[in-house]
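Notes to self, NlpC/P60 domain-containing protein:
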Amino acid sequence: MIPVISVLSALDTLTPTPLIPPLFPTIPDLHVALPLAQYLGAEGQGIVQAAHNLSKDQTRVGELLDQAAHTIDETRLEFGQLGQEFLSTAIPLACRLISPIPGESALRLAQLQHLANTYLARAQLRANELEQTLSPTVMELNTIALSADHPAELPHPGTTSNDLDSQMPGVAETPPAPLNNAGQAAVAAARSQLGTPYLWGGTGDGGFDCSGLTQWSWRQAGVELPRLAEEQTVGRAVSAEELAPGDLVVWDGHVAMYAGNGEIIEAGDPVQSNPLRTTNMGMTFKGFYRPTG
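result:
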């Protein structure tokens, strides 16, 4: 019964959780505040424009999330149907594992294992297809989140950017993070495998799964990682601002490698480069980790 359990467990892990779009707060019309801003000597038009841009982005984000939620719901239904289809074939085979006929049990077990491998591959392929379908949505959401059209900080009343600069003499820009040679080597190794087919449990002999790719890539850089994705939270946890090439992006059932310039390399089908993200098929995001500490 082990093959049956492994398939059901994999389907449960790969099935995306429902996406419930958030309820956004209403953005007030700030035009009515312009006379007051002018009276106080504040620059009010910038705040009004930022509110307008925020409202526009809010509408677009809602549209994107509604579309993504519909796509995810359809995929959840497909995974349910895939599980039912698998069980309808696997249960009769499992019932015939105990047989007085010599060789019958071994034959049925081999058939059951082959069936399990087939459905595991179909499930992973469907999960990869969903990830690729949602990738443009994730990219647009990231673009909106990083947009400079609605800055996080607005000028204080009566101040200009020159005034603010004059109040902070000697403040220099934050220097770039030091080069991580091992991380660069790991990225180079991962990049050399772009286009390699996805293989469940693969560690480089004909294909890779997600943790097999990161483990192999870091091994080329002289660092050994644990085998399973959720166990690759090794080294030092880093923030998104600290990310450097080679850092690992870890979920409870998937792992990718940060390649720099807002990109990651991961074992999809095939090994591919995608925009940086922290969501993956409803899995719990565990964080960013630098294996070299």
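- Confidence is low (pLDDT under 50) at residues 151-179.
- The CA atoms of residues 194 and 272 lie 5 Å apart.
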